[in-house]
Amino acid sequence: MLDTIKILSFVKTFVYSGSIVVPNYEIMSKNLTSRSEDYSKWYNELVVKADLAENSAVRGCMVIKPYGYAIWEKMQAELDKMFKETGHQNAYFPLFVPKSLFEAEEKNAEGFAKECAIVTHYRLENDPENSGKLRVDPNAKLEEELVVRPTSEAIIWSTFKGWVQSYRDLPLLINQWANVVRWEMRTRLFLRTAEFLWQEGHTAHATKSEAIDEAIQMNNIYAKFAEEFMAIPVIQGVKTESERFAGAEETYCIEALMQDGKALQAGTSHFLGQNFAKAFDVKFANNEGKQDYVWATSWGVSTRLMGALIMTHSDDKGLVLPPKLAPFQVVIVPIYKNDDQLCKISKQAELIKASLKSEGISVKFDDRTTQRPGHKFAQYELQGVPIRLAIGPNDLKAGTVELARRDTLTKEVVDLDSLTSRVEAQLQEIQAGLFKKALNFRSAHITRVESFEEFKAVLKQKTGFISAHWDGSSETEDKIKEITKATIRCIPLDSKKELGECVFSGKPSNQRVLFAKAY
RNA sequence: CGGGGUGUAGCGUAGCCCGGUUAUCGCGCCACGUUUGGGACGUGGAGGCCGCAGGUUCGAAUCCUGCCACCCCGACCA
Question: Which listed residue, of A97, A132, A382, A443, carries a Cα 20 to 30 Å from A453's Cα?
């Protein structure tokens, strides 16, 4: 059908997960085969049409548009609350890291060396050979280059050195909301942009076990946030050595599964041992008066989470937002034939809005006269607003409202006097329903395999996570990656000890790990 | 950074191979009118340094060179 489909109605289609996606309503008539199966094209189109973000003129960077940023702000607020409840404080550190500082932790510097933006000059001047143009002033070369932070460990640890003297100064629990720059070879909107927004936590502790507990605690917080707010089920685990953060001794992570069967690392929390303390000479006197290096952690989540949100819940009509993160949870659309009706409906709508607001529900009343109701319906579906209320003359007469759910696309007529409680209940159901749906999808896409043939077959046809035995060696991991492009996403924290044979090498294994193709 | 592709109005595109009237079509936008319970219709209108910079030519969206950006596949990565 797709080879010859000609779109006659108001649609432009892309194919996603085997179904037809309708991200906007431009009249087109063309053969679709060239674009079918192009998930990320769909994704970019949808994201842009839903007014979340667009590519900027700067290589690999994105402009986050107001509606998209409102979602990020919601996420920020909830995460920040959780950080503070666990005793963390926010601070801010410089964007620029002197190269010498950056070099201090060798592994970390090596890990990021290939993707750094570097400031070498501090002044422009008029170009004498090209009037009206500017050029870099060759006389304004910096003595030491500045690295635009790809992460802030170096600058933060060099600062921490001055903050820690005694065990009484510990633990030091700092978080920073910031932008970082990684000059990635290949970028992808939300998932891997050259500049991105994130939070990075950096903590110092007196003991190893306390630092490990911190790293685990923060990974738990990420998991909780993903599941309770974003309605995205995640698997907690630790990374293998080759997937580990450069400079870390252990990397904890949360892994999510997208609708196209690819895995996405949604957040990481690192136990850094004493590596950074040693590199930046951060010592403290313990309660016995002896000098020791502090134990460190770092942890972060980024605007990539927005990509996860989009790719986990969206459907053919656009975004589907969980109520807890929607910029507004309810939109009221009036349906009217004349000014008199609009006036009456507006009064009703304002009453409903006030009533919902008093219950802590965020509401938008769209009384624009420039767009017709059908247009508004489609727009809010594209934006993923969880609940839509429509009020027309018939409702006014009957004392009712039409309530439509974004996730199930179902509609019901609700009496005015029970509306607020109904909306509250439905919002909860949507939040829970989205999680359940995503969980069911994921459960159906974790496959236990016993042989490499099976491994390859599942990866090709079914996709998703593969639970398999692994001999624990990097060589095996690398070879599997080379052959199948699948990587070990994590060694799940809750996986049971189980004797078996490595799917690739046949060597003994005592635990299953999760493989998948990843973003 | 290597391989492939693309760049024409806010968006999606035709034209390019084989240079030649005023650059095609749709959506969107603006005005007026009729409409308004699922992306309205009619009539009229505006909007383009054809990615940027050079070159070839009487003449370049079209040919050549360089650069830039984006997309896909690798390598890298949250």
Answer: A443
> Mind listing the pLDDT tens digit for each residue in A207-243?
999 999 999 999 999 999 999 999 999 999 999 998 9
ipTM: 0.81
Q: What angle do CA A331, A334, A339 make, to 5 degrees?
A: 145
Q: Residue A115 falls within a domain, yes or no? A: no
Mark whether A242 and A347 lie in a shared domain: no
Hey, how many other C-beta atoms are within 10 angstroms of the C-beta on A325? 24
Cα A409 vs. chain centroid, distance in angstroms?
25
Alpha-carbon distance of A343 to A353, in angstroms, equals 15
Domain shared by A159 and A236, yes or no: yes
Rounded CA–C1' distance between A39 and B41, in angstroms? 36
Q: Are A199 and A281 within one domain?
A: yes
Partner residues linked to A253 by β-bridges = A237, A268
Sheet holding A141-148, edge to edge: A96-98, A141-148, A118-121
Indicate whether A165 and A296 sit together in one domain. yes
Q: Does nucleic acid strand B have an atom less than 7 angstroms from the CB of A193?
A: yes
Specify the nucleotide whose C1' lies closest to residue A151 (CA).
Answer: B78
Q: A425-428: long-range contacts at Cβ-Cβ below 8 A with a sequence spacing of 24 or more?
A: A426/A387, A427/A323, A427/A329, A427/A361, A427/A386, A427/A387, A428/A323
pLDDT of A396 over the 50 cut = yes
- Provide the 10 A C-beta neighbour count for residue A156: 26
Neighbouring-strand partners of residue A389:
A332, A403
pLDDT in tens, A431-448: 999 999 999 999 999 999
* CATH number (domain holding residue A417): 3.40.50.800
Residues A263 and A256 sit within 8 Å (Cβ to Cβ): yes
Which of chain B's bases lie under 7 Å from a protein CB? 1-2, 11-12, 26-27, 35-40, 68-78
| Residues A225 and A286 occupy one common structural domain | yes
Maximal CA-CA distance, chain A: 82
Shared domain for A373 and A451, answered yes or no, is no
State whether A278 and A389 are in the same domain.
no
CB atoms inside a 10 Å sphere around CB A18: 7
Do A161 and A89 belong to one domain?
A: yes
Question: Does the CB of A484 sit below 7 A from strand B?
Answer: no
Q: Which domain holds residue A486?
A: 446-516
A473 touches strand B (CB under 7 A): no
Instruction: Give the least confident one: A12-21, A58-67, A358-367, A472-481.
Output: A12-21
